[in-house]
UniProtKB/TrEMBL annotation:
Catalyzes the 2'-O-methylation of the ribose of cytidine 1402 (C1402) in 16S rRNA. Keywords: Cytoplasm, Methyltransferase, rRNA processing, S-adenosyl-L-methionine, Transferase. The keyword Methyltransferase applies. GO terms for molecular function: rRNA (cytosine-2'-O-)-methyltransferase activity. PROSITE patterns: RSMI. This is Ribosomal RNA small subunit methyltransferase I. Signal peptide: none annotated. The gene is rsmI. It comes from Prochlorococcus marinus subsp. pastoris (strain CCMP1986 / NIES-2087 / MED4). Residues 19-211 form the Tetrapyrrole methylase domain. It catalyses: cytidine(1402) in 16S rRNA + S-adenosyl-L-methionine = 2'-O-methylcytidine(1402) in 16S rRNA + S-adenosyl-L-homocysteine + H(+). Its EC number is 2.1.1.198. Belongs to the methyltransferase superfamily. RsmI family.
């Protein structure tokens, strides 16, 4: 498939039959690029997660355009319409409520279908909460894993939490305000309270805040603080040497401490096996 390249001059007009993936601000509207503004002004149609949010951008930069809703509830019905528009020579811009489309939203399905249809796709880069929080954290950023929002189903959630506890790379998670405290307590169980972490909120806005140090400290902070705004959590990975075989004497000490705290031998063994990635029998037989 031949992909047409955009014109080289500054802020070219949108090309026909092209889907533009446009990154929008994650908080501060002034972060919208002039190239993004030009595309949003001049495409035939803007497909947006929430038309009310996109209208705020249009009002700020004083332009109007045709909008259609495109979100997780209606995306399957809207994809054929957008492909038909592209086939007829129209240009379409895809935007999410904030940040880069296709990251934790149904834009991924649209892009896949448009590419399969043979239409051209051009990305207009913009802000991303995950990367903004990562580079602000001071934690290792050369290699990282992005998990988005963790699943709500217990078995799936526990599986990912366990993987995070063993990751040598930095992990990035999105979370909503009313579920943050639950997530922090889960991370303490799986990763330990001393694991380095940063919680970022209100990114690019007036009250942007980065709360860090370790999981214990962050839990303590939010015991005395109201949780407001969408949150991005950055978790440091473990050192390679920490991922080697666990010292048996240390493991036995940890097992005995859990039993003294009130856990049964079976429950304590199961917990330590999951925490350290070993068989339950290896901990159970230490007693």
């Amino acid at each position: 498939m031949n992909i047409k390249q955009p014109s080289s001059h500054k802020n070219p007009e949108p090309e026909s039959s092209v889907l533009y993936i446009v990154g929008t601000p994650i908080g501060n509207l002034s972060d919208l690029s002039s190239r993004a503004i030009n595309i949003l002004k001049n495409v035939s149609l803007i497909a947006c997660e929430d038309t009310r949010q996109t209208k705020k951008i249009m009002n700020k930069f004083e332009f109007t355009n045709n909008l259609i809703s495109f979100n997780k509830h209606n995306s399957l019905k809207k994809i054929p319409r957008i492909i038909n528009d592209l086939n007829s020579g129209k240009s379409v811009a895809l935007v999410s409520d904030a940040g880069m489309p296709s990251i934790c939203d149904p834009g991924e399905d649209l892009v896949k279908n448009v590419r399969s249809n043979g239409s051209n796709i051009i990305c207009i880069p913009g802000p991303c909460a995950a990367l903004t929080a990562l580079v602000s954290s001071g934690l290792p950023s050369s290699k990282f894993i992005f998990e988005g929002f963790l699943p709500k189903k217990k078995s799936q959630r526990e599986k990912i939490l366990f993987e995070i506890s063993k990751n040598e790379k930095t992990t990035i998670i999105y979370e909503s305000p009313h579920r943050l405290k639950k997530l922090l307590n889960e991370l303490k169980i799986y990763c330990g309270g001393e694991r380095e972490i940063q919680v970022s909120r209100e990114l690019t806005k007036k009250f942007e805040e980065h709360i860090g140090n370790d999981i214990n400290n962050v839990i303590k902070t939010f015991q005395e603080k109201e949780v407001i705004g969408e949150l991005t959590i950055v978790i440091k990975g473990i050192k390679k040497e920490s991922n080697l075989l666990i010292n048996k004497s240390d493991l036995k000490k940890e097992l005995n401490e859990l039993i003294k705290a009130g856990l049964s031998l079976s429950a304590a063994s199961k917990y330590l096996a999951k925490k350290h990635g070993i068989k339950k029998s290896e901990t159970y037989n230490l007693n």
